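BUG: 3D viewer hangs when loading the predicted structure for this chain

Environment: internal workstation, default settings.
Expected: structure renders.
Actual: progress bar stalls at 90%.

Input used:
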Amino acid sequence: MKIVIVGGGTAGWMAALMISSRHPNHQIEVIESTKIGVIGVGESTTGLLSDLLNNNLWDFGCNHDEFITETGASLKYGIKFTGWTPNIDDYYIGPIDGSHTKLHTPDIFFAYGCANLPKKDLVKTSQTGNYIHKGFTNFDKTTNKFADLTHAMHVDAHLVGKYFQKVTLRKPNTSHIDAKVLDCTLNDRGHIENIILDDGRKIDGDFFIDCTGFARLLISKMPGNDWVSYQDNLPVNSGLPFLLDYKENELPQPHTHAWAQDAGWMWQIPLLDRIGNGYVFCDQFISADQAHQEVEKRLGRKIDPQSVIKFNTGRQKASWINNCLAIGLSSAFLEPLEATSIHSTIVQIKNFAFDYLRDDINSIKNEGTISIYNNRTRQMFDDFKDFLVMHYMGDRTDTEFWRYISSGATKTDYIDNLLETLKIRLPNVNDFPKYYGAAGWPLYSFVMEGLNLVNKNIARNELNFNAPNIGPIYEAVEENYLQTQQFWHETYSKFATWEEMITHFRILRKNYVNS
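Structure tokens produced before the viewer hung:
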């Protein structure tokens, strides 16, 4: 069977890599024009990218450390959120792995930390949070290997696509056409028959994957194509991306920075070579020129924005229609917060390639299969919408944008219920969606506490277990916490410090660029 992927970039080449590796009998053809540029201003990922690079899902032929060297990626242990509450100088850090007991009911480490630790020290209940807090890493300097993959990454989207293209084209069942797609031809049943290129060629195929980003060149032509907007809940609709160089001897930070601004928020993503930045804002409350001025005032330096990006948050009603599947930005876009873009792309491809793709075209045109895939994808994006909405619930009211948010206009039913629940108890892992790729309690927990939504007394009572005397139980939890802290310290203090690890990969990166 021939599968044609239209559009390269991160989504297109990851799709080609994962599908060609999992299904070597299929022929994969990627159509990507080198005339169409990719904006690489820095993008944040989740731990799923590390799993892919380390071939944990399948033997894709990737090399984790080679990827860092060739793309200038840096490690990410969490996200620092600044200014999301009425105290705009306040911050909290959400580690990417959740607390050490995140899958327990109750989450005793998190409850203990909420009851006893200052907000900025709550990261110590998490393994990756301890990396941030203590300045050590999961990189073993005696072997120059990572002891585990408890990290995500900061990446340059342009270079990520190039890396996956290189690895993919090593596969004997893959090929690349450098051309621009003008249109596609549908038959009388609404199935794609071929792709029409700008040089006049027509490319036939059995199944087609749309990775053309916001253009949505293929899925927009399919019958029943509808867009479900999230604009009522996620009103930001514009982005102002720009780059910053490091100062002399400045190190990347071990976390993404999500910095709330007057009409949205600013991302700061530290790569090995430079910092990718951008202001995500709602143009109903501020113009692009005003956003530009606000950023320069906030940073105390001039910036040179690459462009103004307009977007409509939302998703396709159906990502898979007939013999066309939309992946990545062609399928949905929420906003850059919490690295949902590359994460959801990996989930979409993995679900399709491992659970639904079969040997012949008739087997994967099954209406039941298509419906189940679409339901899974819809649920994931709708759940991510709820997760992102929660980040704005810190009750900030100092500008028109934040007063609009605090009015409750953007709340979803799920978030409304969570906020009510927090008044009487600490939610737990069973109150959140659980499936491959879900956000869930581990990530929600630090956001809710960081926004001052978790009551310390309620958190302490979670350790009660309804026992008449909480003393012995509470002391046991405290001892467990302290022992785990000691274990982490003894284990990882032997490994490279953050500075040592960054220096190691900067040297490799410099040698690679100069070779």
